[in-house]
């Protein structure tokens, strides 16, 4: 029993995470979401990976964003080999690929500090019923924001520490929840059939909000505070290009963000 509990905890901790952004053909996002939520969650998790979250990008109607986690780089190799050489992908890959223009925008990540990974304990995924349908009221649905900061090499530890100490408290005081914080994992890609953006060095924060209105209130409050403005200004020398912000709505079967 204890061994099984420890193995489950280790899997949910996901010390290796992929952030995947797919550019889709026009009007194909709902088709892919329905297929993904029906066929590609349990089948991937059966190989040992964790499907952490899958999302509609609210600003880019042809983008599908998702996160999956692994117990390590060798576990990633084993899990991906089992899935992409397995029967479920063989059966449905043509339908999935037919929705896509590009699926190679992938960042390989690890937690930015010791407890910065996703805590999925206690979360339960809905069954595969009515999948692929947007929330009836997007104002009330949960919102996830992923901010991607492109850093010069060597700056990630200092950036992460200042973010943890200076940025997280005002975020949380204004209704946000830090779901996870990550930096680039620069280990060799153990599954080269799926490329990753190895040249980028990033810090990523994944933040949850109760809805779009809560997100907007939090952002307005932070913009009015001198502390967050000073924090952003102080970190500009660490950046190699402008930061990217993804505003996301979880699908009905996403573990995080609902």
Quick gist of this model?
The protein has 258 residues and is α+β, with helices and mostly antiparallel strands. Helix content is 35%, strand content 29%.
SSE layout and pairing:
Elements (H helix, E strand, L loop, with lengths): L1 H12 L2 E9 L4 H11 L2 H4 L4 E8 L5 E8 L2 H12 L2 H11 L2 E12 L31 E9 L4 H18 L3 E8 L17 E8 L2 H12 L2 H10 L3 E12 L8
Antiparallel strand pairs: 1-3, 1-4, 2-3, 2-8, 4-6, 5-7, 5-8, 6-7
Helix pairs in contact: 2-5, 6-8
Write up what this structure looks like.
Helix content is 35%, strand content 29%. It has 258 residues and is an alpha+beta fold. It has one domain (2-111, 134-250): Alpha-Beta Plaits (2-Layer Sandwich), CATH 3.30.70.100. It has an eight-stranded antiparallel barrel, surrounded by five helices. Helix 6 (156-173) packs antiparallel against helix 8.
Low-confidence stretches: 1-11, 130-140
Strand content of the residues, in percent?
25-35%
**Spatial strand arrangement across the major sheet:** 1-3-2-8-5-7-6-4
Judging by the overall fold, what is the CATH architecture?
A: 2-Layer Sandwich
């Amino acid at each position: 029993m204890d061994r099984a509990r420890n193995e489950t905890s280790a899997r949910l901790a996901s010390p290796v995470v992929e952030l995947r952004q797919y550019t889709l053909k026009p009007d194909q996002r709902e088709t892919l979401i329905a297929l993904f939520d029906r066929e590609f969650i349990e089948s991937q998790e059966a190989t040992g990976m964790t499907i952490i979250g899958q999302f509609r990008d609210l600003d880019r109607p042809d983008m599908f964003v998702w996160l999956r986690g692994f117990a390590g780089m060798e576990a990633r190799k084993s899990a991906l080999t089992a899935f992409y050489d397995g029967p479920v992908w063989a059966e449905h890959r043509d339908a999935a690929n037919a929705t896509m223009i590009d699926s190679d925008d992938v960042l390989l990540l690890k937690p930015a500090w010791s407890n910065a990974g996703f805590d999925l304990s206690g979360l339960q995924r809905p069954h595969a019923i009515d999948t692929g349908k947007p929330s009836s009221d997007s104002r009330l649905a949960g919102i996830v924001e992923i901010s991607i900061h492109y850093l010069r090499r060597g700056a990630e530890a200092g950036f992460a520490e200042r973010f943890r100490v200076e940025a997280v408290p005002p975020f949380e005081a204004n209704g946000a929840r830090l779901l996870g914080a990550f930096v680039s994992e620069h280990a060799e890609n153990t599954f080269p059939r799926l490329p990753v953006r190895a040249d980028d060095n990033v810090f990523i924060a994944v933040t949850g909000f109760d809805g779009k209105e809560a997100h907007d209130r939090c952002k307005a409050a932070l913009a009015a505070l001198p502390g967050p403005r000073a924090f952003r200004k102080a970190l500009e020398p660490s950046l190699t290009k402008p930061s990217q912000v993804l505003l996301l709505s979880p699908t009905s079967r996403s573990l995080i963000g609902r």
